[in-house]
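Students often ask why we bother encoding 3D structure as a string. The short answer is that it lets us treat folding as translation between two languages. Here is a chain of 247 residues written in the first language.
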Amino acid sequence: MIISHRHEFIYLKARKVAGTSVEVALAKHCGDADIVTPVAGFNPKWDEAEYDHPGRTQPGYRRHSPLATVRKRVGRILWHTYFKFAVVRNPWDLVVSQYHWATRNDPYEGAVRKSLGRFWTNPLRVGKNFRWLGRSLARSFVKMDVVTFEFFVKHLLHFYPPNDRFYFDRSGSVGLDFLMRYESLQKDYASACSRIGIPASQLLSLKTRSRSDGRHYATYYDDRTRELVGKVYHRHINDFGYRFEES
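And here it is in the second language, the structure alphabet:
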């Protein structure tokens, strides 16, 4: 995430919406007094283009700090003065991206805790996660050669909550000035840059190689998984007008 005092904007970085690509582009225009949280460095295994990023650890801020946290820290005056924006994405497409990113490593390389990204990264939570899944389901998971998309949606989506906290305030209203859509990202990014007063560069394609098959998201779904994602992301559907589109 970025808070730029130089250009008077706040960029909130939601998950799996090309957030790193936007952040790297914006960070080039930030100064030493601006708050730019760090991102993972270039990795040819996941990134299509090399990049540099000036971000550094900022007390009280994280790379995915939610709206309420940032608003509280910057204060009412800056919050209402600065231009605030983020990226939204079709939820069914987002979940497919989340699935590929969560399962990008060999699920059974080394230890069980490496198997699903954030789901296992904290060893203190592994026991809690297994208890939530249930003994029989957890046993099935451990025996899997491949974590299927169906299993991910039905049983693990709970651990990857929607991006609501980056967009909505306590009243339930959208608390930002502008939402860029992933589906028209370059165009919307140019609009944001025009509002901020900086040149709009071509966005790099970063953190995208985990999903390499190029399939349309609709091909991953059956009626049940489509319905489950729709329920979890109902606010994105109602407020942003997203619909499930056939391939």
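Translate back mentally: The CA atoms of residues 84 and 96 lie 27 Å apart. Keep this in mind for the problem set.
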